[in-house]
């Protein structure tokens, strides 16, 4: 019996589970280790905050996918990896040994600048915790006129969360203030000027105050680099990604930022019986940004390569496209599209995003 262990129920592993459901793998015992029986979908989180979806529409039932694929599910979070000993460690000290390991555990939110905000701080990840916390924030804001919410992060997630929060406040007649801190690298760095301009305009129209400075967490909220204090009742952190800390001691080869170094097959450069896809890895042959788009697209390649490794057949390469399409939700059912130098906005962008997101969930739902 060969043991394949999948860690994390992220975007790429959804395709692996689907491939395992479609193809019988005699002589292979597969285990999925993931902290929850459901995977919440980040793409629909802003729409859920804004009130366009209920949570059940934004999540994938991992347990049912695993059962269909004849995969044993361990509802747990791994605490460590020892790639030399071919095992992962669970928090209670148990070891799970593998012949082949696949990692899709995503990235963590870098909170190093904001930690001092203490219990006011709400990182957007883990998404499971965020889904529990947001309704409580709305309830608090309803009770407390003048509620102050600060979102930190100038990337797509920060922008979408700030606009979704602003819209949710307006819908619930909450007299609150929403501010977005985007640091010195600015709003939507890496996107075209047209996209940045449209979003800037939309934030102003929606009444979201934008600060282009670095924020440091303080007891009262956040302090900007020019010394301005932004008092806050809640600070949502959608700051940059950082590699999961547990990788440090994994003995896997990591890149300079601590992510798993992989080749075009998404195979570890140091341990050929370890594969990784999604935010947790760093391709060493091509530049690839961390995004759900690549995590999803690499999924079928990861699935093919895990099966090929088990059967001793040739591996295939994941070829990332030069440009990815981003459809940003703007609070109401309105969106901004970003694709290389091209940008567009309108209700039709929201409808397009909504169709893509619903189809994604549908693809991984039980028949
Ligand atoms: C609000 C928001 C909106 C976004 N919108 C978009 C978008 O529109 N388009 C886009 O391309 N990207 C978007 N992103 C980025 C996107 O969410 C990530 O790039 C994507 O989720 C990465 O997928 P992944 O499979 O690597 O990891 P994830 O989707 O984060 O999945 C990781 C999985 O691993 C599990 N896990 C974590 N640690 C452990 C552990 N120790 N043991 C076991 N399991 C573990 C987690 O519970 C989770 O199930 C958005 C992000 C946010 C926060």
Account of the 3D structure:
- The chain is of the alpha/beta class and 367 residues long.
- The protein is 29% helix and 26% strand.
- The protein has helices at residues 11-22, 45-49, 62-68, 127-143, 156-171, 193-206, 292-311, 347-363; strands at residues 2-7, 28-34, 38-40, 59-61, 72-75, 80-82, 87-89, 95-97, 100-103, 108-109, 121-123, 148-152, 177-181, 209-211, 215-218, 221-224, 229-231, 234-237, 241-242, 260-262, 274-276, 281-283, 325-329, 335-339, 342-346.
- It has a 5-stranded parallel beta sheet, with helices on one face. The chain has a 5-stranded parallel beta sheet with strand order 11-18-12-13-14, with helices on one face.
- Helix 1 (11-22) packs parallel to helix 7.
- The longest helix has 20 residues, at 292-311.
- The two termini are 30 Å apart.
- Flavin-adenine dinucleotide binds at residues 7-12, 33-36, 39, 42-43, 45-46, 77-78, 104-106, 124, 126, 156-157, 160-161, 278-280, 290-293, 295, 326.
TL;DR?
The protein has 367 residues and is α/β, with parallel strands linked by helices.
Outline the biggest β-sheet: 5 strands, parallel
Please tally the helical runs, counting DSSP H or I stretches of 4 or more residues. Answer: 8
Portion of residues within helices: 25-40%
CATH fourth-tier homologous superfamily of the largest domain? FAD/NAD(P)-binding domain
Radius of gyration: 21 Å
Mean model confidence by pLDDT: 96
The largest sheet has its strands arranged as 5-2-1-9-21
> CATH topology of the largest domain, what is it called?
FAD/NAD(P)-binding domain
For the record, the CATH architecture of the largest domain stands as 3-Layer(bba) Sandwich
Name the shape in a single word.
globular
């Amino acid at each position: 019996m060969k043991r394949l262990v999948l860690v994390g129920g992220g975007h790429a592993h959804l395709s692996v589970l689907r491939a395992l459901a479609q193809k019988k793998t005699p002589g292979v015992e597969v285990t999925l280790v993931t902290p929850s029986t459901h995977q919440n979908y980040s793409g629909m989180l802003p729409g859920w905050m804004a009130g366009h979806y209920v949570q059940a529409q934004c999540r994938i039932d991992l347990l049912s996918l695993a059962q269909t694929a004849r995969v044993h599910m361990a509802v747990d979070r791994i605490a460590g990896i020892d790639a030399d000993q071919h095992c992962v460690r669970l928090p209670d000290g148990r070891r799970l040994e593998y012949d082949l390991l696949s990692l899709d555990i995503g990235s963590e939110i870098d909170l190093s600048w904001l930690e001092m905000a203490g219990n006011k701080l709400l990182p957007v990840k883990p998404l499971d915790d965020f889904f529990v916390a947001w309704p409580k924030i709305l309830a608090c804001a309803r009770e407390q006129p003048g509620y102050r919410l600060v979102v930190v992060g100038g990337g797509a997630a920060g922008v979408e969360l700030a606009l979704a929060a602003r819209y949710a406040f307006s819908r619930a007649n909450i007299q609150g203030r929403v501010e977005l801190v985007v640091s010195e690298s600015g709003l939507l760095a890496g996107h075209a000027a047209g996209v940045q301009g449209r979003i800037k305009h939309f934030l102003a129209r929606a009444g979201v105050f934008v600060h282009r400075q670095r924020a440091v967490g303080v007891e009262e909220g956040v302090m900007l680099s020019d010394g301005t204090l932004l008092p806050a009742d809640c600070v949502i952190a959608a700051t940059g990604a950082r590699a999961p800390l547990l990788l440090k001691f994994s003995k896997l080869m990591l890149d300079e930022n601590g992510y798993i170094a992989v080749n075009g097959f998404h195979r570890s450069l140091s341990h050929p019986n370890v594969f990784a896809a999604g935010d947790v890895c760093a391709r060493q042959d091509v530049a690839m940004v961390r995004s759900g788009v690549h995590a999803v697209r690499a999924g079928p390649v990861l699935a093919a390569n895990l099966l090929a490794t088990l059967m001793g057949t040739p591996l295939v390469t994941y070829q990332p496209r030069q440009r990815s399409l981003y459809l940003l939700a703007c609070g109401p059912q309105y969106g901004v599209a970003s694709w290389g130098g091209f940008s567009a906005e309108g209700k039709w962008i929201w409808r397009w995003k909504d169709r893509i997101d619903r189809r994604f969930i549908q693809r991984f739902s039980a028949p």
